[in-house]
Amino acid sequence: MLHLLDQYAQTHNLVVEPGFAPKDVKWAVDIDKVGHYLEVQELGDTDSRKNPGRTFTTCPEFSQPEMIRAGKGCRHFLVDSADVVALHWRGKPADPWLADTEAFDALARREALASLPEDDPVLVLAVKHTYFVNLILAAAKEIPGLQPVADLLSDPASLRAASRRLAQLKAKSTDKVTFSVDGAFPVENTDWHQWWRRFRSSIADRRPEPAGGRATLAVCMATGELVKPAMTHPKIVGLAGVGGMPMGDVLVSFDKEAFLSYGLEQGANGAVSEQAAASYRAALNHLLKYNSKRLANTITTHWFAKSVPADEDPLAWLEAGSDETELAAQRRASALLGAIRLGERPDLADNFYYGLTLSGAAGRVMVRDWMEGKFDWLVANVNAWFDDLAIVGRDGDGLAKNPKFLAVVGSLARELGDVPAPLIARLWRVAVNCEPIPESILAQALHRCRAAVIAGDPPNHARMGLIKALNVRKGDRDMKPILNEVHPSPAYHCGRLMAVMAAIQYRALGDVGAGLVQRYYAAASATPALVLGRLARTSQFHLNKLDPGLSRWFDTKVAGVWASIGDQIPTTLSLEEQSLFALGYYQQIAADRARPAAATTEETNG
Known about the structure:
With 606 residues, this protein is α+β, with helices and mostly antiparallel strands. The chain has 24 helices and 14 strands. Strands 3-2-6-5 form a 4-stranded mixed beta sheet. A 4-stranded antiparallel beta sheet has the order 11-12-13-14.
């Protein structure tokens, strides 16, 4: 996996050098050539409500261990948060202090630091701001292009103007800020790169010796080369919504004694070079930002060995299902698979796919699943997923639309967020790799199905399709999307019988509230022999209340279902048989609804 992520970073020309990383910057302080403050401009798509700003691909970056080694108040170079860059603070403890002009200017000149208590939030901010300014001042001695930035940061009046303008624009104190000098962004230049490399090297030289001396060389898990292992790895961002930390999470971490072995410390236990770690981090960050999908409380991302057009991405069809304005997902998958197998798409025939399902937990990246395979397999698997899920619509008028993957997940619980991450990852793997559906998923689907039937809720197409798919993938070739009156399972026909008797009661008595379905469905689906015989006797009383023609028609129908059940009603039903009961019940109702009422009356009178 790490090797493939490294390849992805290389083929997509991502910044992979340690100490450099892409960053989204929301604001820029405009400066003229001599360092005079001009304005603050918002970057990125200013019309967007959630404008993340502009992405600068090569920004300086400290790792967390480097920031610790660098000392108190260490901050990043050229790009940082608004509070650090311009003392723009929107927190209540510091607002009155920073709003005072004289106090602000004294802080900007670093004249007031000694008067502040050690735990004062203004002091903490001031120390960070001072570190940031000193970095700019040091770099400006070698890089003339940074002198205007240094001049602005050294002028309290200019800094105050920038801070107040950020407040007027309702910038957050955590928004990223950089500088624009005479219309150009110094962070986009390369003249600071060598200075920054030297500075990071000086920080690295402060690293304490491992207990057993310098780390020995080891084979890199990502490249296979003999390397000096990175002791700590950079953080992956983008998992904050699924259990991750806003500042990022670590994929490879050895910070507990239980994870260490053979006297090795930290990253030496899973050797990856600093360069390879930066490479896989760049790949994952790029994938999570530009090609990921949230599936309840997990995130899935995928890529291909060779580029695939967005409208031919089978996993996108899997997530989207069918839309009114689009060709059905299954038809698109079937057409593309046919083109590949006929040799009409040689560009896709030898392609491969790779997929990750991720979440965060306690600062670590949790890899829920990893998948890879040939592209044509993926298309065939997606086609099979929709084919197996195909189920008649609840109104009996044709098949239901291809469900979105999240609709299938959501059918397993009351709320989508209640579905645990491991189950989502397992079901995603089932769909992508055409694997059997675990019985644990069937148990949840049946529980929700029974609850819906008893409550009188409309049947859920995705749930019924999932129950059908499980039986199909277990080898039930007689299971069809629509009613199959010759299915060999007595359990299936027990469900049909329940549906027919419910229809007889409704025709005889109308809506009686808690009818036989609400009272007996759960018991009948588990122990049909104890329930259906008694319901059959009750059903005879209901038939006597019907018009003679309609009564004969229903009587014939009931006799046909009894004949399909066979000589003996099953005493108990296994979990799989209960799923067949549910499908027989559902498909019988759908078949009856497809029959127009007028036609039914004509049949009974004919």
